[in-house]
Write a structure and sequence with these properties.
Number of strands: 38
Structural class: mainly beta
CATH architecture of the largest domain: Sandwich
Number of helices: 1
Strand content: over 45%
């Protein structure tokens, strides 16, 4: 009796350890970062978990568009049997020169290095050009070569597909379920041998290639959507009810996103708060009623404060100097746009007549078209003073100032940031990630920020904050400039590079600030 109970318990616990299916029904409204890694994208292909399944879409018509999503919960051994399946749907209608498919891709990785060997196999539900039916299709790659393929026509636009591995024979089998529902009926339409004994039968081409598998090697699974020279819209192609059995815990590290990334203020997103630099030389003649020539240099410092230096015809300060100098206000962000907030006072003479004046004004730092080729700046202001002892005043008076020739060109809003994320090693040889940034301001100054340690989260991406940089022109610290990135998630491209695919960016410099969607700032 005790022997029987012991055997029963052993069988029970063995089944719990070695025969546990893992799955994803794509019903949680977003990617499960514990199960899926960063998408590998080519062209404009995209995978979105929406409407209870995993959809592939592309708004472009590139020669090749695709998106591959890695299953990171488990890898698959060379020393045990396993299978992977998904319900694929393909409602596209390719024309001549076009192609589309949704399926499973399995890649061989080398145990010693955890790197891909170039050997892979995939099974998919494909749509061929000008065909009203679909094809169960499989292709086989060995060291970058394409030795063989298998296919079988089907009238169904939706069907479960599966790839399985026999560890004893080292043979992959690709199948479809001929009876979807509770009574599965898997029908093989091709086999591919990857061991020294071969054994594959795939109809087209060579069905065998020795991958030189050893016990330490593993396989990685991806689900993918693919299209060639065509647009795929929402709801046309997707997968559902992903399942696998026989997977083992991940045997190597998930790659960490690294590389160089450039961000710049976009010219084609008008609602984003921009930051203005109005530093420059302004020359011209004041409005016709006064008609005075002026030559003024405006300097805007890192906090947005404005200093004016120059001359105005007929104007002298209280000491009789015609070279004038004054703090005249600052530039701040008001209601999402840069605004010149003028505030100051003057005591001196105008044409040898005593003048005192003080006032404030608020003028958005953007050029307005006045019509008939004229442009300038508009705002409101309040002032009071005396000329020759005669008082004058105005409150909330509309201001319209024509821009002097070339003056509008002084208003600059272009800025960019170079972000580098790289690996470092400490004294014990342990690797860690660092981020460093360089910010090019609208006024032409460059602020360099020292590198700092960072970490990447598959769920939350990178969160980075840069401040306390140094102005490389003056070698002085800049305590007023900062820029931060939150939730920068990354996508692994098929060429091995990484591309940001989400997050927000917040920026503050030259006395102003703004924020926006990080994707809008990705430089071409």
């Amino acid at each position: 009796m005790w022997l029987l109970i012991g055997l029963t318990l052993a069988v029970f616990y063995s089944s719990q350890v070695f025969a546990v299916e893992q799955s994803d029904d794509f019903n949680d409204g977003g990617k499960n970062a514990d199960k899926w890694g960063s998408d590998q994208i080519k062209g404009k292909g995209r995978l979105d978990e929406v409407r209870g399944h995993l959809e592939y879409v592309t708004g472009g018509a590139s020669a090749t568009d695709s998106s591959d999503r890695p299953w990171i919960l488990r890898q698959f051994p060379t020393t045990a049997d396993w299978w992977i399946q998904i319900e694929a749907t393909n409602n596209t209608y390719p024309s001549v020169g076009q192609w589309s498919s949704f399926g499973i891709n399995v890649r061989h990785i080398l145990g010693a290095t955890n790197k891909e060997s170039g050997n892979e196999i995939e099974v998919e539900l494909a749509a061929f050009p000008n065909s009203i039916t679909r094809e169960f299709y499989a292709e086989f790659h060995s060291n970058g070569l394409f030795p063989g393929e298998a296919m079988m026509g089907t009238p169904d636009f939706s069907a479960p597909i599966r790839i399985s591995f026999n560890s004893a024979t080292k043979i992959f089998t690709v199948s479809y379920d001929a009876d979807p529902g509770p009574n599965e009926q898997w029908m093989a339409f091709g086999t591919f041998g990857v061991g020294s004994s071969g054994g594959g039968t795939c109809i087209f081409g060579t069905c065998n290639a020795d991958w030189d598998l050893n016990d330490a090697d593993r396989f990685i699974a991806y689900v993918f959507g693919y299209s060639n020279s065509m647009t795929v819209n929402d709801g046309e192609m997707y997968g559902d009810n992903f399942k696998e059995d026989g997977g083992v815990p991940w045997g190597g590290p998930v790659p960490e996103p690294k590389g160089s990334f450039r961000f710049a203020f976009p010219a084609n997103v008008p609602l984003l708060p921009f930051i203005a630099s109005i530093t420059g030389n302004y020359t011209g003649t004041s409005p016709p009623r006064v008609m005075r020539y002026y030559n003024i240099d405006i300097a805007q410092d890192e906090s947005g404060k404005l200093i004016a230096l120059g001359t105005v015809e007929g104007i002298q300060d209280k000491d009789g100097n015609s070279d004038l100098s004054a703090n005249v206000g600052s530039v701040k962000t008001v209601n999402g746009e840069p605004t010149v907030q003028i505030k100051g006072s003057f005591a001196g003479t105008r044409d040898n007549v005593g003048v005192t004046i003080s006032g404030t004004a608020a003028v958005p730092a953007k050029v307005t078209d006045f019509g008939e080729g004229a442009e300038g700046f508009t705002g409101t202001g309040s002032y009071k003073g005396k000329v020759g002892g005669v008082p004058f005043a105005g409150k909330n008076v509309p201001i319209q100032v024509a821009a002097p020739p070339g003056g509008a060109e002084n208003v600059k809003k272009d800025w960019s940031m170079q972000l580098d994320i790289a690996s470092r090693q400490d004294a014990k040889g342990k690797s860690y990630l660092v981020a460093l940034a360089e910010l090019l301001l609208p006024n032409g100054d460059t602020i360099g920020f020292p590198e700092k340690k960072t970490k990447y989260s598959a769920a939350k991406g990178y969160s980075l904050s840069f401040k306390g940089g140094t102005n490389t022109r003056t070698s002085l610290p800049d305590k007023k400039t900062s820029i931060s990135i939150k939730g920068m998630t990354m996508t692994l491209q098929q060429d091995g590079s990484w591309q940001p695919n989400g997050g927000t960016i917040t920026y503050q410099f030259l006395g102003q600030k703004g924020s926006g969607n990080l994707i809008d700032f990705i430089a071409p």
